[in-house]
TrEMBL record:
It comes from Asanoa ferruginea. It comes from the Bacteria. This is Uncharacterized protein.
Amino acid sequence: MVTRAGQPLSPALAGAIGMNAEHTGLLLGRGAEGDAVLLRLFRPQPTRIALIGGLWLARITVFRALALGAQVFVRTSDERRWHGLGEVAVGNPERVRVVTGGRPNIAARVGDPVLHVHDVEGQRVFDLQPGDAWQTTLTISAQLTDTAADALAVADAALVQRMWAQQAVYVAARLGVDPEAASEVENLPDDTVALLSDGQVRLAWVSPTDIEQQMFGVPGRL
């Protein structure tokens, strides 16, 4: 990975934004006790993630996925939201491709995962097949829309920024999380995300790095 100025990204900084030895853990941020909150974005089995929040969080999530070696394919109604991300982040514009039509016929493996980003409201996300190891769909919705609800129905995990309490209860129920545990989502600051997975909810302060602040600006919910 390279910096915006074209200099190689140091191993320390790469680690700070999400790498681990197995290339499966993406660092979302720090919990209340200062512990690392990790999202298992890539796994030996196909993985489905629903993100309900702003473009700021979506871009940072994809940026950190690139640090894990991901090839990213984006379906979007607005290419400007993703233009140049691959080139700026890793010096290779081909690492983030905007695509249309069917899913790309590409294999993935540990260390070389594939992330399919769905950034189109009103369209159902294509589903992964049982043999799609190390491939993940990331469905992005600003609010709890029909597209988000469809994604939640099959999601292995959800990333959620601030939302109304009733919506948080719905999301928690779809992920098998105690609704009372999701009550804090209503008052989350812009730089905090809730991870709902494995029957629990964890709050993470995203704490963007300097380069992430340069690229994506201040934390936002819009």
